[in-house]
Amino acid sequence: MFLTQSAASKALQEIEGMLEATLFERTKVGLVPNAMGHCAIRYARLITTELNNFCREVSEIQSGTGGRLAIGTIMGAIPEILVSALHWLRTAHPNLSIEIVEGTSRHLLELLDGGQLDLVIGRSSVSPEPYEYNYFPISDEPISVVAGGRHPEVSGEMPFELLRDYRWVVYPKKMPLRVLLEKEMDLAGLPTPTHTIETDSTFATIAILQKSIDVVALLPTDVARMFARVEMIRILPVTLKIPANTFGIVTRKGGMPTAVAELFIRAMRERPLAH
């Protein structure tokens, strides 16, 4: 940052003087932020993000490049919701640069907080501080039980209880699909799966399923259909009892979306809620 230690110390003293509060505690491992320090850091990052967005948008307007939009999205929103929205957006703004980051809602919210994303298509409920975000629901996320493409075709309804002898590819603990699986197991009177293969990667899940006929997983139905059409996986005729979760558009409260982000959000809000 091209600052000497003495200059940094002086700057910190000036900030603490303005706030009339100590922000850091001196420990054996260096300066550690206290509760007030964490609060100051969080808002400093938000202010820096808004200034960076301002400079970026002014530069893009001046250069005529059409702007840039960074979208974070959960896996289940990609095949139908996001792809359709991007088609509309690229038609309306052909010079727009678009960045897409796929991940879990928790990880995407961290990127949103850090200013790397303009908005998230996901769930704010996974955050320990969901009140820090604006949330507008846009779709349900039905879930399917899937196996590898070589799994024998099953005729008729397959009771969930028949999955007791399969090995499961599961999401990490406390993630929505993992919680849903544990609830379904409990309702079916089955023990929580052991000897699982844990991953949050869709690619890894599909690759693992392809190599075996006795491994199953949960996937968002829209994602499962996309891979089933090319026979990479097979959707098993299992009806889940837990209602589908809802996801939506997430932005930070107090933040000002860019003009392009505002157009995208408005278009998504005006579309009918998908089921």
TrEMBL record:
It comes from the Bacteria. It holds the Pfam family HTH_1. InterPro entries: HTH-type_LysR_regulators, LysR_HTH_N, LysR_subst-bd, WH-like_DNA-bd_sf, WH_DNA-bd_sf. Keywords: DNA-binding, Transcription, Transcription regulation. One of its GO terms (cellular component) is cytosol. One of its GO terms (molecular function) is DNA binding. Residues 1-34 form the HTH lysR-type domain. The keyword Transcription regulation applies. The keyword Iron does not apply. Coiled coil: none annotated. Belongs to the LysR transcriptional regulatory family. This is Transcriptional regulator, LysR family.
